[in-house]
């Protein structure tokens, strides 16, 4: 493979597409022989352009959520609605229709969040303008968006086979930080003589729930919060800036408590309850696709699927011990419920 010259990349879109393609090739190269024999050195003709494009974009040199999902779809017919039957992937891994379903359902989850992100901006403006009615309407739109995200996530069951996800797809999303299969990281040839460590792709790299959490004033445990903050380094800088902008806005919780408006308090609590329901549903999905699939893979006789990835059994692709993390995040969300002052 020739050493690619990044100076030919003119636009932001071209650079994002280059990051998508190079990071897919990197994951395919590192994990081509499975979890037990990962490559320890990324050749310079992949490492150098990937690192250069990553620096230009402010992203790490590994596949991230914004590659796998946000950059990796195209409509078959731009005139028709963005539904799963009208979408194609740009770059693929092994995994066939299950991989297509996994990525495109996640694209649709992000789409379902769009009205919620817009409502969140409207709500921040309503607080600064002290418009209780506009704030109430924005909170109601936010709740509807969170409920739509949960419904959309349910499409995973229709399009993704848990055995294929666990045994085939998951390894290609795994990184080289907090991963027992690659305990020291990966050498990027021509970039660094020491191995570098980066987390794999994770839903925690999506801006959506970070923004919702900051807006609703949800406080996570130190361990969870540390991981979530680390995942912000895996987002496009403009996404990270957006979350920090929400974080620095006047507190919604303080505004609602000081307003003594019971309608606002109810609307806020309904948003929090919808977020708890989404997180509980996500736990159920992860249990099916990770925990149950791992148990099945362990007990399976020789079969056409590759062996289960032992080192990753209870970990998310971002490197967390996944169920305890998700349950902690869900439980801390529930604690945010506000109670009427006497």
Please explain how this structure is put together.
The chain has 14 helices and four strands. It starts with 11 loop residues before the first helix and ends in an 8-residue tail after the last helix. It has one domain: Methane Monooxygenase Hydroxylase, Chain G, domain 1. The protein is mainly α and 342 residues long. The longest helix has 38 residues, at 262-299. Helix 4 runs antiparallel to helix 6. Helix content is 57%, strand content 3%. Mean pLDDT is 92; it is low at 307-313. A two-stranded parallel ribbon has the order 1-4. The radius of gyration is 21 Å and the shape is globular.
What labels would you give this structure?
57% helix, Methane Monooxygenase Hydroxylase, Chain G, domain 1, mainly alpha, two-stranded antiparallel ribbon, 342 residues, two-stranded parallel ribbon
Report the CATH architecture.
Up-down Bundle
Q: What is the straight-line distance between the termini? A: 70 Å
The main β sheet shows up as:
2 strands, parallel
Low-confidence stretches: 307-313
Shape: globular
- Secondary structure category: mainly alpha
Count of spatially separate domains: 1
* CATH class group: Mainly Alpha
